[in-house]
Specification:
Layout: E1 2-6, H1 11-23, E2 27-32, H2 35-50, E3 59-62, H3 63-68, E4 72-75, H4 82-89, E5 98-101, E6 106-109, E7 112-115, H5 123-130, E8 136-139, H6 146-150, E9 158-162, H7 167-178, E10 183-187, H8 194-198, H9 200-210
Parallel strand pairs: 1-2, 1-4, 2-3, 4-5, 5-8, 9-10
Antiparallel strand pairs: 6-7
Helix pairs in contact: 1-2, 4-5
Length: 222
C-alpha cells in the first residue's frame, strides 16, 4: 500500500517513514509544504536505509501531490496545523481514503506539559470534521517517542491506541501499524475516546523529563 506522510520531514514523520520502509513493503511518500524539503528528506531516508542494506525508493512531493498518490494519508504535523493541512489537500483526497492523525494539542508552563483540549473535544475529532465526505479519520501513533521511533536500532516493544468510527478504516490502519516490528496496535473504540488517548502524550513527556533513562518512554498494556 502507498502511504503519504504529510509533514514527513518532521520527527514523527521520519520515524514512521523509516520504520515502514525498513520493516515492510509499503511504498512511502513524503509530503511537505516545500517540495524541495520533501525531496531532500526522502533522499536522507533512502541513505539511512541503504546504510542498513535496504534499497528502497522514497519520493518527496508537495503535500497535495503526496496525498493524491496515496490511499492512507498520515498527518504528521503539529496539532495547530492539522485542520489547515486537511483543507490544503482536500481536493487531492478521494472517497475511501483514510486520514490518520497522531497529533495532540499541548501547552507548557513552568510545571510542565499539559493537554490543550480543543473545543471539538480532540484533535482527532477536528480532523474528522475537516475531512471531505467519504474520507475517514483514524487516530493513531499519538504516544510514540519520536527519537525511539526513528532509531532503527531500538526495539520498540510498545503499543499504539487506535480510535475511529469507521471500523474498516481502523482495521486498515491496524494492519499498517502491525507491520512495524515491535509496535502493537490496540483498538480503543470510537472517536469519542480520542481525548483520553491524546492526553497521555503530555503525561509521558512529563514523566520522561523527570526520570533519568526514560527519555524515549512508551506505553505497553499487559
Amino acid at each position: 500500500m502507498r502511504i503519504a506522510l504529510l509533514g514527513g520531514t518532521g520527527d514523527v514523520g521520519e520515524g514512521l517513514a523509516l520504520r515502514w520502509a525498513y520493516h515492510s513493503d509499503h511504498e512511502v511518500v513524503i509530503g511537505s509544504r516545500d517540495p524541495e524539503k520533501a525531496r531532500a528528506k526522502a533522499e536522507e531516508y533512502e541513505t539511512e536505509l541503504s546504510s542498513r542494506g535496504v534499497d528502497r525508493k522514497i519520493n518527496g512531493f508537495e503535500n497535495g501531490m503526496a496525498a493524491d498518490r496515496a490511499r492512507v494519508v498520515v498527518l504528521a504535523v503539529p496539532a495547530y496545523h492539522a485542520t489547515d493541512t486537511v483543507e490544503e489537500v482536500a481536493d487531492s483526497l478521494d472517497e475511501g481514503d483514510i486520514l490518520v492523525t497522531p497529533a495532540t494539542g499541548m501547552k507548557r508552563d513552568e510545571d510542565g506539559f499539559h493537554y490543550n483540549r480543543p473545543g471539538a473535544g480532540s484533535v482527532t475529532r477536528l480532523v474528522a470534521d475537516a475531512a471531505p465526505e467519504g474520507v475517514s479519520a483514524v487516530g493513531a501513533f499519538h504516544n510514540l517517542a519520536a527519537g525511539r521511533l526513528a532509531n532503527l536500532d531500538a526495539d520498540l516493544g510498545i503499543d499504539t491506541l487506535l480510535v475511529a468510527d469507521d471500523d474498516d478504516a481502523k482495521e486498515t490502519v491496524r494492519l499498517l501499524a502491525a507491520d512495524i516490528d515491535g509496535l502493537r496496535p490496540l483498538d480503543a473504540g470510537g472517536l469519542a475516546n480520542a481525548p483520553e488517548i491524546e492526553a497521555l502524550t503530555p503525561l509521558l513527556i512529563n514523566v520522561a523529563m523527570h526520570n533519568d533513562g526514560l527519555h524515549d518512554l512508551g506505553v505497553r498494556f499487559d
